[in-house]
Amino acid sequence: xxxxxxxxxxxxxxxxxxxxxxxxxxxxxxxxxxxxxxxxxxxxxxxxxxxxxxxxxxxxxxxxxxxxxxxxxxxxxxxxxxxxxxxxxxxxxxxxxxxxxxxxxxxxxxxxxxxxxxxxxxxxxxxxxxxxxxxxxxxxxxxxxxxxxxxxxxxxxxxxxxxxxxxxxxxxxxxxxxxxxxxxxxxxxxxxxxxxxxxxxxxxxxxxxxxxxxxxxxxxxxxxxxxxxxxxxxxxxxxxxxxxxxx
Length: 247
Prior knowledge:
Layout: H1 3-13, H2 19-27, H3 35-43, E1 50-51, E2 57-58, H4 61-77, H5 81-92, H6 130-137, H7 141-149, H8 163-176, H9 186-207, H10 212-246
Helix pairs in contact: 3-10, 6-8, 9-10
């Protein structure tokens, strides 16, 4: 590469972008990303954009690559921010973090569970009547009554059932093929309620704050907690079943 070409490449790498421009670059791949989330990741020390004299953030392409690494690690591998930070620090030192090939952490069987990003959007905004829900889920109305009786689904204000009810009914339908009935699923409802209560306590101090940054952090923490709880549940069940099968 000629000296002028190298200078041009360096200038391109250090091109200054506003936070809005960075968001536009990332949105195509990470549609749930917001300016508040980018500010939150900065507050957590995962990216450190330069500041103008007036205090405006200016990002380079290296910053964008760093953000893409963080967002990919969260979405595809639901890694906690602490682990992502450690991996970034290894990369900053010129090291290759264990299990990392290029820009992206390695997968394990457990890592193919839903990620933190899967908890960022609500269930699809759809409405079903009782009969429509039964038809869409492929279950009988009697089976639906059992799911409602044990608190697994419920009518929404306005007298309809939503996408969450449909997903629950589908999973219950698949479990029923193994002889698992709605009454057996009460423990799942109770366990979910306990986790919701615990996580609500964790983020309560953030929720009470009114700043957009605090709200973004609360949402991020809840997503990570939800994904990590699934990981823990999976590991515990896998271990228990392994012991069971070994007799």
